[in-house]
């Protein structure tokens, strides 16, 4: 039994050495100012426990605003269950903002906009990819990065015309028979989405 | 080593034989090894007791192995979802920055934990971090409340912070996690709790054996405006144009609510992954431990068995030699 001891010790030591020499791939070299303030305050009050990490430790920092307008727009389209586009370089995107279709080109002014159900079209050279978005937010940053966060995004060719018509009729009927404000609001939302879907298919 | 043990056993067993104890040759001591009489402070474990112990340890080993397999399959199912949802909170952090050291009056700590146990130390870690945040944000005119998701954190926090618990949700994982459920939950929390800053505490899933306690901060729209005016990380927020017919504060409100539900969704998925991973490693070490115990018990069993054989032989031989000489 004592023969195993050196092996155990060697394993333990080498494991410890490995842990120290190999940094986490998620660790970034620079901590932001707010983080170090938090870490210092934590260490003063609660010295025995390591401070928790914060989201900025898991994210690559965004590039600063360039002095000249870049030629391409970087688009991120994220959904709760998938990142459809991540850091894709395109020429233009047209987002279905609440005020109507909004075109975003590189060098667009920094904007925050809510999205209504509608079509997002991504223009890359001569390709145009269209997605139907269910709603969400779009941020355009000054460094020509556009973040579009939606709950659902389906390519337009996967939408069934018949189901759209049926849904529209169903929600119109619900609106007519709605009694409370909540029901009316829900029915109205349904109608908005299905009309947008209809417009997406026809337009 | 076995010989020495046998000799020791022999010496121990020989001692009571010198006593006037009638040896019944009809009794087969090997077949029914019941507990022997304890004489002169001599301790001996019978093989039946050891066998029972081995049976129960073997059962536990099988159960923990099965639990590990179940946790591994659940982890596989939920890990892809968690990794896909990681892009969801990044745009918000890119826009609004990460401000864990913000100083506000009403802090709400949302602690995410599991409902079931046997998952290692992740729930205790979350509770420790929550208590740490509570201490960090305590002060005059400042209040700090808890919103608890999951039974385990509730059980721990109810012991000393019962009056600070605003809401508690349990049984969240009965159906597989999806965004709609989390959106409804987030809506519930936002409606019933007054907050200036929400701090979500969860375990981020780094790998099957590594879970990092993390805290995400979501600010209320008023605090966002205040911080934007004050400058610093959110100072650039004013340079963003707000498209849309609604006022800036309405858009900010929708934005922060959306941010909360997105961050919650990712946090719950990551915590669920961490739970399954922790359970896998806990059950694995438990099976390994049970295997070690079985090895030790087998040795004890063999020793006991050989000792009883030796006893039997000694009885017979000494009985025969008593008859002869």
Automatic annotation (TrEMBL), chain A:
Keywords: Hydrogen ion transport, Ion transport, Membrane, Mitochondrion, Mitochondrion inner membrane, Transit peptide, Transport. It comes from the Eukaryota. The lineage of its organism: Eukaryota, Viridiplantae, Streptophyta, Embryophyta, Tracheophyta. CDD domains: F1-ATPase_delta. This is ATP synthase F1 complex delta/epsilon subunit N-terminal domain-containing protein. Pfam families: ATP-synt_DE_N. The keyword Mitochondrion applies. Coiled coil: none annotated. Its main location: mitochondrion. Belongs to the ATPase epsilon chain family. Residues 73-145 form the ATP synthase F1 complex delta/epsilon subunit N-terminal domain. It is found in: Mitochondrion inner membrane. InterPro entries: ATP_synth_F1_dsu/esu (IPR001469), ATP_synth_F1_dsu/esu_N (IPR020546), ATPsynth_dsu/esu_N (IPR036771). It comes from Rehmannia glutinosa.
Automatic annotation (TrEMBL), chain B:
It is found in: Membrane. InterPro entries: ATP_synth_F1_ATPase_gsu, ATP_synth_F1_gsu, ATP_synth_F1_gsu_CS. It is a peripheral membrane protein. Keywords: ATP synthesis, CF(1), Hydrogen ion transport, Ion transport, Membrane, Transport. Its main location: membrane. It holds the Pfam family ATP-synt. The keyword Membrane applies. PROSITE patterns: ATPASE_GAMMA (PS00153). The keyword Ion transport applies. F-type ATPases have 2 components, CF(1) - the catalytic core - and CF(0) - the membrane proton channel. CF(1) and CF(0) have multiple subunits. Belongs to the ATPase gamma chain family. This is ATP synthase subunit gamma. It comes from Rehmannia glutinosa.
């Amino acid at each position: 039994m004592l023969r195993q001891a050196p092996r155990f010790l060697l394993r333990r030591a080498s494991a410890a050495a490995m842990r120290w020499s190999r940094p986490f791939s998620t660790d970034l070299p620079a901590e932001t100012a707010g983080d170090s303030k938090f870490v210092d305050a934590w260490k003063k009050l609660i010295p025995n426990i390591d401070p928790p990490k914060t989201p900025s430790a898991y994210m690559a920092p965004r590039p600063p605003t360039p002095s000249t307008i870049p030629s391409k727009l970087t688009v991120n389209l994220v959904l709760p269950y998938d990142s459809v586009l991540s850091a894709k370089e395109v020429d233009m995107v047209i987002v279905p903002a609440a005020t109507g279709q909004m075109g975003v080109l590189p060098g667009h002014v920094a904007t925050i906009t809510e999205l209504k159900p509608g079509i997002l079209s991504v223009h890359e050279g001569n390709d145009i990819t269209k997605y139907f978005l269910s709603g969400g937010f779009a941020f355009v940053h000054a460094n020509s990065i556009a973040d579009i966060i939606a709950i659902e995004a389906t390519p337009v060719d996967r939408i069934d015309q018949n189901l759209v018509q049926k849904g529209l009729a169903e929600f119109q009927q619900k609106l007519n028979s709605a009694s409370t404000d909540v029901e009316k609001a829900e029915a109205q939302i349904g109608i908005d989405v299905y009309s947008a879907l209809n417009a997406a298919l026809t337009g | 080593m076995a010989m020495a043990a046998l000799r020791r056993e022999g010496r121990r067993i020989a001692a009571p034989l010198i006593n006037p104890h009638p040896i019944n040759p009809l009794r087969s001591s090997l077949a029914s090894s019941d507990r022997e009489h304890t004489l002169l402070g001599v301790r001996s474990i019978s093989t039946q007791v050891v066998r029972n112990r081995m049976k129960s340890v073997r059962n536990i080993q099988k159960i923990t192995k099965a639990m590990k397999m179940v946790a591994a399959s659940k982890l596989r199912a939920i890990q892809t979802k968690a990794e896909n949802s990681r892009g969801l909170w990044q745009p918000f952090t890119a826009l609004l920055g990460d401000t864990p050291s913000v100083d506000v009056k009403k802090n709400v700590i949302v602690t995410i934990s599991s409902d079931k146990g046997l998952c290692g130390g992740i729930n205790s870690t979350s509770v420790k971090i929550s208590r740490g945040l509570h201490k960090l944000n305590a002060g005059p005119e400042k209040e700090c409340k808890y919103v608890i998701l999951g039974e385990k954190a509730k059980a721990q926090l109810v012991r000393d912070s019962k009056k600070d618990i605003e809401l508690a949700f349990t049984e969240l994982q009965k159906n597989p996690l999806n965004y709609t459920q989390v959106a409804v939950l987030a809506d519930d929390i936002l409606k019933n709790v007054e907050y200036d800053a929400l701090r979500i505490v969860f375990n981020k899933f780094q790998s099957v054996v590594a879970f990092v306690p993390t805290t995400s901060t979501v600010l209320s729209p008023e605090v966002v405006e205040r911080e934007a005016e004050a400058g610093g990380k959110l100072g650039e927020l004013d340079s963003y144009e707000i498209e849309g017919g609604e006022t800036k504060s309405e858009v900010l409100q929708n934005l922060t609510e959306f941010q909360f539900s997105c961050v919650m969704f990712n946090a719950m998925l990551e915590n669920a992954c961490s739970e399954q991973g922790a359970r896998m490693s806990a059950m694995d070490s438990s099976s390994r431990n049970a295997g070690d115990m079985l090895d030790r018990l087998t040795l004890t069993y063999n020793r006991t068995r050989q000792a009883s054989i030796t006893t039997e032989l000694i009885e017979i031989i000494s009985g025969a030699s008593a008859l002869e000489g």
